[in-house]
Amino acid sequence: MHGYEIIQEIARRTGGGWSPSPGSVYPTLQMLADEGLISSAEEGGKKLFTLTDHGRTEQTAPPWRDINFQLDPVDGELRSSIRLLGSAMEQISHAGTPEQKARAVELYNELRRKLYAILAEE
Question: Domain Transcription regulator PadR N-terminal, which positions (predicted)?
Answer without folding.
Answer: 1-58
